[in-house]
Amino acid sequence: MALPILQAKADAGFDLEIDRSRYDDANAHDPSFETPPGVNEQVVRTISAAKREPDWMLGKRLEGLRLYEKTRFPAWGPDLSPLIADMDKIRFFVQPKARESRSWDDLPDDIRKTYERIGIPEAEKHSLSGVGAQYDSEIVYHNLKKEWEDMGVVFTNMDVAVQRYPDTVRKYFMTSCVPVNDHKFVMLHAAVWSGGTFIYVPKGVKLRIPLQAYFRMNAERGGQFEHTLIIADEGSEVHYIEGCSAPQYNSSALHAGCVELHVLKGARVRYSSVENWSRNTYNLNTKRAIVQEDGVVEWINGNLGSGVTMLYPCSVLVGERARSDSLGIAFAGAGQHQDTGSKVIHAAPHTSSTIASKSISKDGGICTYRGLVKVMPRAVHSKVSVECDALLVGDKSTNNTYPMMRIENNQVEIAHEATVGRIGTDEIFYLMSRGLSEEQARQMVVSGFIEPIVKALPLEYSVELNKLIELEMEGSVG
């Protein structure tokens, strides 16, 4: 399984809680090397030197640091003040005692067993074309099946790609898609990024089976800043799956990764992500795609675990007939604020996009949809559909919706729909009349609510996502 199988435990026969031991239990902190807490020029130079990077990459890192130091933290959205207060305590580079390998048996026992509990090696055997695994700041495992290597597919560690494919990386890395000066946490990412995934799919090659990367943050007060760069050449297809987790601590942790997708003419990229960080983690991720003529990008997002999430996958449709489809689910329980959404910029004629966002809030949790659709003057005959659905459980939860649409020509079709509701008593009564308990009835309603995203995920992810939300709902009252 790609995500941990969760089990419910009864507490004296009454309240139920979630057994998160598969990913909340941390290994002993025993790194090979780590930088001192905080970020400064010496830390940035140390990271670059450890990776033996070319001068141009060090220059990009130092540019990011310079911009980060003079840019204010965002004052909108969720409260980031606890994180800001802890920024000087976070370790921005933690190197595990493991070298990258193509065999799970070569990894230290504790690290290997971490991924075995999560189910990654087993999933690789049955349902994946290749797997990458990151532990803290470094990739510890990477493998691509030979049939795809023989067809010219490149699936490797981002650090390795800097060395092996310097011209390609320099052309695409944090240039036109996510520039270094984009926002505060992109600037930080540029300065301290480490690990991640590089994928190149040659012209006309269509991967039938997904590629997957799993990111595990083990260190207390740690930061993870992986970089994902995917280039789908003309007429190619690839499905990339990303999973994330971290053990639970009482101190702040930071995830500020970056994803750049380059979808060339007639190519198709599906990016599926289930982010289940621990509740002490601030998940401030940046994901963006540039889509050329007749290209298609699909974003499938599940955001559940982190205490605070700010994540808005963005598609820039620069070629005629380019298309973007985004489907997301956010779940917020007590003490969580999931501030998520989607952005699409239509910059060419006959482009189309759909955004479907679903959220569930319970026990005082906050879900916020924050979206942007921009249709440029030359993007005539474009079509846009936005649908936001929110489900509230209990009387203390909150849902916010902040859609923004900037339409700069009149030859477009735009549709926007938003609904907020509670689990209805009529539906519960009907299901209970068919023999279900009240709790089972509520879980069935929620399962139906999230069905679109569950159906869009690969089987092992959909089963576990559904199970996770079911167990989060156990013990809920209306």
Strand content: 35-45%
**Relative helix content:** 25-40%
The rounded distance between the terminal residues' Cα atoms is: 32 Å
Mean pLDDT, to the nearest integer, reads 84
Please, how many helices?
13
Largest sheet properties: 14 strands, mixed
Return the domain count.
Answer: 1
Shape label? globular
Can you count the beta strands?
28
Describe this structure in words.
Helix content is 26%, strand content 37%. The protein is an alpha/beta fold. The protein has one domain. The strands form 4 sheets. Strands 7, 8, 10, 11, 13, 14, 16, 17, 19, 20, 22, 23, 25 and 27 form a 14-stranded mixed sheet that branches. The protein has a 10-stranded mixed sheet with strand order 6-5-9-12-15-18-21-24-26-28. A two-stranded antiparallel ribbon has the order 1-2. Mean pLDDT is 84; it is low at 1-20 and 471-478.
Keywords for this entry:
single chain; 478 residues; alpha/beta; 14-stranded mixed beta sheet; 10-stranded mixed beta sheet; 13 helices; 26% helix; globular; disordered N terminus; disordered C terminus
What would you say about this model in short?
The protein is of the alpha/beta class and 478 residues long. The strands form four sheets. Strands 7, 8, 10, 11, 13, 14, 16, 17, 19, 20, 22, 23, 25 and 27 form a 14-stranded mixed beta sheet that branches. A ten-stranded mixed beta sheet has the order 6-5-9-12-15-18-21-24-26-28.
